[in-house]
Specification:
- By secondary structure, the protein is an alpha+beta fold.
- The strands form 10 sheets. It has an 8-stranded mixed beta sheet. Strands 27-28-26-25-32-36-35-34 form an 8-stranded mixed beta sheet. The chain has a 5-stranded antiparallel beta sheet with strand order 22-21-20-23-24.
- A hairpin with a 5-residue loop joins strand 25 (430-439) and strand 26.
- The chain is globular.
- The protein starts with a helix and ends with a strand.
């Protein structure tokens, strides 16, 4: 606590309005092409890094952003993150109006210094200094600058000048200088097609600038920004992390350093704990079956809670502490599971990964501190097994959309190895809907249904329905069947079948006026349970390619019983659509005069497609939506 107060005192004593240079902040002076159809314009964004030694680095930021409308107000915040190893040397913030006139100088007392508490961390020593500007008029310009000093040279800031969609850039620059004995490494990505000046590039000095960048619209299904906009990776061959010095020239050496120096006795477990887990597997010889028992043990014994201390929480807490307390973060629980597997003679490896649905990979060609999550790798002759150690619910070996299909750093005793996590094929991402419903003469529906979900569709249903109260489940399934009004459930059962890696839902319900009565006719929407009405937004003169991240299959088999007092006037014809984007089929098989079997298949293909194909994909989805709204027509 004293250290935090001292840091803040130093920070505030240095806060001064050092804005001595003359800049032109007139909105009228911004080039017209950079103001067109955007929410904000970065006038300049200068990042300067200086490496003084293996364990000392300073970072200086100077930035001005003109905000054109409320949609650009994400830029109204100034945030400076720090911890006990980062000292903030000065901060200056000034607001300007559209004419370039200074309207506000932010005072030190207006800056808030708070714990960077995320709502789920057990404890954290990360802090946030921030200012939240409340705009009165548009456009306005917010200018700020600050400097930081840190001992952790293992984290060299990268350069990613394009921060968001619908933001133009007049100038964004990156400079780095290093002392002679600390050589730097770089990797340039997606520089082609952009106006980038490279003024200097050597073993100890860099100078890049991006100019006149026109803002990009976030079109539907666009790739992630970082996949097609400029990015510069920067690292050192010699570095320091939390007082631990390292030196490496490859992922293998870097992983070796992490294994030896970051391990630091965290894999110790008491003899009594070893005896306990060995008793659990004493009659099992197969290592995978042993691993299943240990994984189940960890799931029942522990729970996830974030712990963020030092270097963004890179150091796992000790295995013995997790065993004693029964909780840990992703690093602690992964390290704990590995330690227990070591105790029963099963090989596994602590692994670092970028988590999230966007499938971001560790860059296999540029070693550095990467990743925001830890998982466990079990080498296997057939296919490596990956364990998510933070969940008490997922089956053994299940990753799902949070960590699937991406490169990961596996830390072995021999060094770092890049491996790829499980790829879920469309056939594995299956939802099978089986059920029946009947319609009476008044148009009311009575239904029973069973849904089984696998792969990433299992993930969706587990996350949305598992563990909810009966009241919350009632609300959730009314949302799921949003096409049916006045729905009343008489049965809601959900079951997480971990043995078969599927999520099962059994439902029974009734609803009034499902069918539409029009004079002497009754119209019944055939697809009552799984209507897919999604049609991607139209884009005029699309500029970007599009991507479908994950394929999936929906299979539906539903028996429909029609009222015996009615005569069938029209039954939708069989439909089959076959495109590069996927497949759709729908048909009604007649069982008898009043009973039909509705069979439907929707298959979406994962893939990257050129912008010219986007309208064809829209048309495919429009056809699906149309046929999912097909109706049976009865004469009463």
């Amino acid at each position: 606590m004293k250290l935090i107060k001292l840091t803040l005192l130093i920070l505030l004593s240095f806060i001064s309005l050092t804005y001595s240079q003359t800049y032109n902040f007139k909105f009228s002076e911004i080039p017209e092409n950079l103001k067109k159809d955007v929410n904000s314009v970065i006038l300049f964004d200068h990042l300067s890094v200086e490496i003084h030694s293996q364990n000392l680095m300073t970072i200086a930021v100077k930035k001005a952003v003109t905000v054109l409308n409320k949609m650009g107000d994400a830029n109204r915040y100034v945030r400076v993150f720090y911890d006990k190893n980062i000292k903030i040397k000065n901060v200056s913030i000034i607001i300007y109006d559209s004419s370039g006139k200074e309207v506000k100088k932010v005072k030190s007392k207006e800056l808030k210094d708070v714990s960077q508490f995320d709502g789920f961390s057990l404890y954290t020593d990360n802090r946030l200094l921030y200012y939240d500007h409340v705009p009165q008029n548009y456009p306005y310009t917010i200018y700020y600058e600050y400097e930081m000093e840190t001992v952790n040279t293992g984290f060299i800031p990268s350069w990613e000048p394009v921060e968001s969609y619908l933001t133009s850039i007049v100038s964004s620059s990156y400079q780095l200088k290093s002392v002679v004995d600390i050589k730097i490494r770089t990797k340039e990505l997606n520089f082609e097609g952009y106006t980038i000046k490279k003024n200097k590039a050597s073993d100890i000095e860099l100078d890049y600038e991006l100019i006149n960048f026109e803002g990009i619209e976030n079109e539907p299904y666009s790739p992630e920004l970082e996949n097609f906009t400029p990015k510069l990776f920067v690292g050192l061959y010699k570095f320091n992390l939390e007082g631990i010095k390292g030196e490496a020239s490859s992922w293998k050496e870097f992983g070796k350093w992490q294994y030896e120096d970051l391990k630091n006795g965290n894999d110790f477990i008491s003899e009594s704990a070893k005896i306990e887990v060995n008793k659990l597997v004493e009659n099992i010889s197969d290592p995978i079956e042993k691993a299943k028992v240990i994984y189940n043990y960890v799931q029942h014994k522990t729970r996830y809670i974030s712990v963020q201390v030092g270097i963004g929480g890179w150091m796992p807490i000790k295995a013995q502490e997790v065993h004693k307390l029964g909780y840990g973060d992703c690093k602690g629980l992964t390290n704990y599971t590995k330690t227990l597997l070591d105790a029963v003679g099963v090989k596994s490896h602590y692994s670092l990964i970028w988590s999230g649905s966007e499938k971001k990979s560790v860059d296999k060609d540029f070693f550095s501190m990467q990743g925001n999550h830890a998982i466990l790798n079990l080498p296997n002759d057939k296919e490596d097994i990956w364990l998510e150690c933070t969940s008490q619910k997922v089956p053994f070996g299940h990753l799902g959309s949070f960590t699937d299909d991406r490169d990961v750093l596996v830390i072995t005793p021999e060094g770092g190895v890049i491996k790829h996590t499980k790829v879920y094929k469309k056939e594995e991402n299956l939802q099978f809907t089986k059920g029946s419903y009947s319609i009476d003469n008044e148009g009311n529906i009575n239904a029973n249904i069973q849904l089984e979900s696998y792969g990433v569709q299992y993930d969706t249903h587990l996350g949305y329905y598992d563990g909810k109260s009966p009241t919350d489940l009632d609300v959730a399934f009314k949302e799921y069947f949003g096409n049916i009004n006045n729905i009343k459930f008489s049965k809601i059962e959900v079951f997480n079948n971990k043995e078969e890696s599927k999520y099962v839902e059994n439902l029974e319900f009734s609803a009034s006026n499902y069918a539409t009565n029009s004079g002497n006719q009754q119209l019944i929407t055939v697809n009552a349970f799984n209507k897919n009405q999604h049609v991607p937004k139209r884009t005029k003169e699309r500029k970007l390619p599009f991507e479908i991240l994950r394929g999936f299959i929906d299979l539906d088999e539903v028996e429909i019983t029609l009222p015996i007092t009615s005569k069938v006037e029209y039954i939708p014809e069989k439909v089959m659509l076959d495109t590069k984007f996927g497949y759709y089929s729908m048909e009604l098989e007649k069982i008898n005069e009043h009973t039909y079997l509705y069979k439907r298949k929707l298959q979406i293909e994962e893939g990257k497609y050129p912008k010219e194909d986007y309208e064809f994909y829209r048309n495919f989805r429009k056809e699906i939506a149309k046929h999912d709204n097909s109706k049976i027509i009865l004469n009463k």
